[in-house]
Amino acid sequence: MSGFGKVAVLFGGTSAEREVSLNSGGRVLAALLGQGVDAHPFDPADQPLDALKGYDRAFIALHGRHGEDGTIQGALEVMHIPYTGSGVLASALAMDKFRTKLMWQAAGLPIPDYAVLEADSDFSAIEARLGLPLFVKPAREGSSIGVTKVKQPGELKAAYLEAARHDPLVIAEQGVLGGEYTVGIVGDEVLPIIKIEPATEWYDYEAKYNRDDTRYLCPCGLPESRELAIRKQALEAFRVLGGRGWGRVDFLMDADGNHYFLEVNTAPGMTDHSLVPMGARVAGMDYPSLVRRVLELATND
């Protein structure tokens, strides 16, 4: 009836972002069912992947590891099931903030200054070089899990140890404090930029998912020519990693109005707090239409 055949909505999973994924996937499933699509919930934490045999398409609403990092994409490739979002390589690259930075540096795209941290790093020298405040992150987690804002000299090592609990690959990143922004991409369309104004000190897990006082500004307040230039470059940043289908590019601005790309989400959130649906709405695309468009773009490598 819908032309999509039997569709699996993949959500839940085993990552630290399971709760967010359950929320995203539940909404996606409802939107597809509401449009007459033969859609079914599929939680890889509860069902073996070979139970996907017989499905015609997969909508990936998994976040974090084993959902957004190329692993589920590889499994779907082997089963010849078209799926939403980026392929194996782009998903793996985008999940790894360190290798994303290397790719963007090679392409000449602006990024914040950073350092890779190890147990024997000269933490005081890195604090001095990057300046304070700075952010310490597990390189392959999402939703700000394990991230610390380091504000005082001597705090970097403790922040490293916290991040290393989540991932042995840890990066420290210069604090760029002139504003947090994000831009969604659906097919070849770059959505309007959203400015994020958290009531908390920065856009942490709490501000993303549990608070109602985070402000989202769209239009974002940038001059039109500046916004269009950044949107064009955001699409380039997405494509440099091999991104396809849909995604979201996050960036920061400094006090002088320079922008710095931060990371790409290849399976963005689809909750009622999520940013791609917000940008799509401003562009004239309601939630069910967005979900349908993303599913239309499902493919194999």
Describe this structure in words.
With 301 residues, the chain is of the alpha+beta class. The chain has three domains: 80 residues, Rossmann fold, CATH 3.40.50.20; 137 residues, D-amino Acid Aminotransferase, Chain A, domain 1; 61 residues, ATP-grasp fold, A domain (Dna Ligase, domain 1). 33% of the residues lie in helices and 21% in strands. It contains ten helices and 13 strands. Strands 8, 9, 10, 11, 12 and 13 form a six-stranded antiparallel sheet that branches. A hairpin with a 5-residue loop joins strand 12 and strand 13.
| Low-pLDDT ranges | none
N→C terminal distance? 26 Å
Q: Mind telling me the CATH superfamily name of the largest domain?
A: ATP-grasp fold, B domain
Which oligomerization state do the chains in this entry correspond to?
single chain
Number of strands: 13
Number of domains: 3
Q: Estimate the global geometry from the Cα principal axes.
A: globular
Tags for this model:
about 300 residues, alpha+beta, Rossmann fold, D-amino Acid Aminotransferase, Chain A, domain 1, four-stranded antiparallel β-sheet
